[in-house]
Amino acid sequence: MIDTYQSLIANWSYPTTVRFGPGRIAELANACRGAGIRAPLFVTDPGLATLPIVTNALSGLEEAGLSTVLFSDIQANPVAANVDAGVKLYREGHHDGVVAFGGGSALDTAKAIAFMSGQSRPIWDFEDREDWWTRADPAGIAPVIAVPTTAGTGSEMGRASVITNEETHTKKVIFHPKMLPVEVISDPELTVGLPAAITAATGMDALSHSLEAYSSSFWHPMSQGIALEGMRLVKDWLPEAVNDGSNVEARAYMLAASSMGAVAFQKGLGAMHAMSHPCSSIKGTHHGLTNAVVMPYVLLHNIDAIDEKLAALARYLDIGTTATSFIDWVLALREQLQIPNTLQDLGVTVDLIDEMAPMALEDPCTGGNPVSMTRGTYVSLYEKAINGTLD
Question: Which of 225, 272, 339, 391 has its CA 20 to 30 A from that of 11?
């Protein structure tokens, strides 16, 4: 009997407390105090470090009596050296928690700094494999307050960080359950100044998270439902957020869709992310934009396994009744948002395929793809995505 129901056995976890809505950034100091943080390390990316949304947040923390230090030595695709520098500053400053403020790169780096602040082993010993997370000392993990300023990665809802190993040029997922931020402040007003192109790319990242989770064959009905509604929000509000960046309502719904995508992909991701990670680590491509480019190629590759799911999704989104309807919508949305058609448009060329294909196959996201992948299938998919062959 146990064997009969083996496919219904799974581990589910759900996220953290979220203070959602316009103006909630004013509650940052209160959130820190609630988490027992009196001397936060404020981690953000260099592009935000001097902007009013950061300087105002820092002023608010200082006025509340919290001793705060800024750290912004972060690359667009964060590397271990960024984490090491942050940990060094954290320890030297005797900090007791981290404020993660920004997009996916800042949030991932901040969570990794908080995680590594009390560990003695190298960061790669905690890669998301088997039970490697049990190697960590949970008492050495600092609390994190996350403040997303983009609507895409959903890192504020995650228990992992994606960090690039500079020696191997591979992205690694560092995981521990206590990496989940203790509280999130999700204020859409912080995303109003995001340029249209970044809004589009990060929004497509949110779509890819829900879409790959929805397509995965793993058993997680709660994530399945969240993925559906997350994609509906993207359909209804991403074009509006791109067209009118000052529309706080559209920004709010996209922030919700982003967080929902991150919750949903606890169910699993797939070949879109597995293909995207090598492109980002080798060529520095924007993660969300890369997912958007490879999306239709992966959907067509997986079509036999997800035909009925995509048809049901098309009906739910009211865009048609078949899998083809959904793929046509994806292509039309990409065109509307001015997403490039090929990886070649992002600087990824065929001479990189031999290096990228095995990296994609080894990527942990591959395991969630609804179709079993091989080195050869990744070679074929990269060729199609570089040359623009949709079949």
Answer: 272
